[in-house]
Amino acid sequence: MSALDFYTLFRLNSSQSLQFSPGSSQAFCLWALTCFLLPASSNGLVRIGLKKRHMDLQTIKAARIARQEGKAGVGASSMVHDLGSSGGDIIPLKNYLDSQYLGEIGIGSPPQNFTVIFDTGSSNLWVPSSKCYFSIACYFHSKYKSSWSSTYTKNGNFCEIHYGSGSISGFFSQDNVQVGDLVVKDQVFVEATKEGSLSFILGKFDGILGLGFQEISVGNVVPLWYNMVQQDLVDDEVFSFWLNRNPEAKEGGELVFGGVDPKHFKGKHTFVPVTKKGYWEITMGDFLIGSHSTGLCEGGCAAIVDSGTSLLAGPTPIITEINHAIGAEGRVSAECKEVVSHYGDLIWELIISGVKPSKVCAQLGLCLFNGTSSGIESVVEKEHKEKSSGGNDLPCTACQMLVIWAQNQLREKETKETAISYLDKLCESLPSPMGGSSIDCNSISTMPDITFTIGDKPFSLTPEQYILKTGEGVAQVCVSGFMALDVPPPRGPLWILGDVFMGAYHTIFDYGNLEVGFAEVA
């Protein structure tokens, strides 16, 4: 996990190796943040201050370099994170180049300091090794030297991490890890001996400290947070994030182990249960653009609360509707428009006649039907695959999206003519394959609120919260905080609530009660 080309995906395979590669729905780089540790503990709390660097155009340029590097090496077999027990379900995650809320930890005795990402979307700790000789990236970051530590214990088991733009390999070691003024004893971590990507050179961090569950830990290593609890280093089995999104503030945010800081939120938290251990996964209800329901998550959608992803990620059909509503720059899809032109009337008639939505495209001969919904995969991803696969999946994908959009229009009681015209316009708002759609900064005040339903309560984001800005005056650039992510059933549709959401809502990760709580930031 690293400052990789915008949106990074994981695979955990049977050989206990973790693979990463840039996904089809890739995010435009928005934020790079540098941080330091404020090792203050009081009342049983361990506080880690997060300091933020302003987003700038140089950061965006670096992201593009990393993104282009990743595009050249993506293989279909390395584009997903397959949780072994999940039956091959696809769970894409990560965006480190956009999100670098960092802090400092120490490994060894005496402690050797490393700047790490605190990531709720993974569960391992890794840092560069002094035995990393042949990777340029290692010369730009701090390296762990086991010979300098009196508490080091050799492990030596090999670990390999694959990326679309390179790979990290190394081995497990064991040593004490200092977080704030607490010391976690005998923590197993990865010493990376090879970092084969320009992305790691561009990264502002040395390594990753995962705060997810052991179920997704490479090598089934006990995560550092587990050991912190088991060694009675914290009073309560919770940790909480406050991410300061004020670009003028000197304080970037705070991560608190063992409790919460009440000055960072208003009112009470709304708690919802973790539905599947691994990631911090919860169930989300309906999703609204302004006051209009999209209908996609009325029956519930999975959502992963992930401090390692800066943007908000969701299904392509909904991100397309958001793009249209906020005037985001999109990608015109000829295939989408062609399906509207040839099949729009038929799609409408089949839906109103009562045909099951998942069977509409099969009845039109655009999709195969095997008794279950095939799920919606990004049109952009299909466009990348078409030449190499020789398949004809684009019309099917476009049809499936049009079915969802047509259903929404029916709910709004629109006429067929109005609805089909709207569908054609949406074909011009598909998320760009580069992600991070550009926005007219002068139109922010006219954009709608976006609302998530969690625990039967609305959690709204204003345009000022979901539009990211850099520069000033005529040089100001505005970018949407949403990106496309398509996960097929039964795990999908899936949302990732990254730092754009966590910046608006103080977030508690309750390990003891297996809950996640949200409250408005103070």
Automatic annotation (TrEMBL):
Keywords: Aspartyl protease, Disulfide bond, Glycoprotein, Hydrolase, Protease, Zymogen
Signal peptide: none
One of the record's GO molecular function terms: aspartic-type endopeptidase activity
Domain Peptidase A1: 101-519
GO BP terms, alphabetized: lipid metabolic process; proteolysis
Parts forming coiled coils: none
Highest rank taxon of the organism: Eukaryota
InterPro entries associated with the record: Aspartic_peptidase_A1, Aspartic_peptidase_AS, PEPTIDASE_A1, Peptidase_aspartic_dom_sf, Phytepsin, SapB_1, SapB_2, Saposin-like
Domain Saposin B-type: 331-371, 392-433
PROSITE patterns: ASP_PROTEASE, PEPTIDASE_A1, SAP_B
Secreted listed as a keyword: no
S-S pairs: C132-C138
Active site: D119, D306
Cited PANTHER family: BETA-SITE APP-CLEAVING ENZYME, ISOFORM A-RELATED, OS01G0290000 PROTEIN
Family: Belongs to the peptidase A1 family.
Protein name: Peptidase A1 domain-containing protein
Organism: Salix brachista
